[in-house]
Amino acid sequence: MLGALRRRINYLHDVKANNDTREYVTRKGDVDLGAASRASRLDDVTYGRGLDRFIPVCADIAVIRHTSAGPQILVGVRQQEPHPSDWVIGGSMIAGESWVAAATRNVQRELGFTVDPLRLSRKPVGFYSLQWDTRAQEPVQNGCHMLSALFVYRYGDEPIKPNEEYEQLYWTPVATIANSPIDVYHPAFRQMAYDVLQTFI
């Protein structure tokens, strides 16, 4: 099992290795590009062909709440490929979106509440290169390769209404995931939790 997990993950680098996290907008005025309103959803055949050639970029979010025992993370038990298991909240970016806009849209879509921008980290705590063995689109066995940028959102008791991607949600200490045995949580998830913990030290 350990060998299979190693084949499925290739860490890119920690954001601390490259502190230049600015976004460069080439249009005049640095305005909201309205990418989400222009984008149309691809059918599975087209999207599958794209996954065979391109690497989607994801804006993922570690939703964190503070407790007397330390920070806890909201874990989503995914029921869709890739990786139908415990994971962070998030999803792909749309061309023209900023990191923050993509993270905000993904939280709204998957958890049903509007992000308070003052509680969302302005830059990622880490970048992760994720290579999955399988995917939802045919041919399933081709898998997919995704690049994830992980942001931290400090939860403020917003009502949570998860969408159909999740079988369930649960809160657990961030340290529990970071320090868990390799066969309990995916290695990439453990690394994400470790990187989140560094923001609280």
Question: What keywords describe this structure?
Answer:
201 residues; alpha+beta; eight-stranded mixed sheet; 6 helices; 24% helix; globular; disordered N terminus
Can you give a write-up of this model?
The protein is of the alpha+beta class and 201 residues long. Helix content is 24%, strand content 28%. The protein contains six helices and eight strands, in the order αβααββββαβββαα. The longest helix has 13 residues, at 99-111. The chain starts with a helix and ends with a helix. 27% of the residues are buried. The model is unreliable at 1-33 (pLDDT under 50).
List the helices and strands and how they pair.
Layout: H1 2-7, E1 9-13, H2 35-38, H3 44-51, E2 57-67, E3 70-78, E4 86-87, E5 89-92, H4 99-111, E6 126-132, E7 144-154, E8 166-173, H5 174-178, H6 187-198
Parallel strand pairs: 2-7
Antiparallel strand pairs: 1-6, 2-3, 2-5, 3-4, 3-8, 6-7
Q: How would you briefly describe this protein structure?
A:
With 201 residues, this protein is of the alpha+beta class.
* Rg (CA only): 17 Å
Range of helix content? 10-25%
Shape label: globular
DSSP strand tally: 8
Q: Largest sheet, if any?
A: 8 strands, mixed
- Return the average pLDDT rounded to an integer: 84
Q: Count of helical segments?
A: 6
Distance between the termini: 33 Å
Strand fraction equals 25-35%
> In terms of structural class, how would the helical and strand content be classed?
alpha+beta
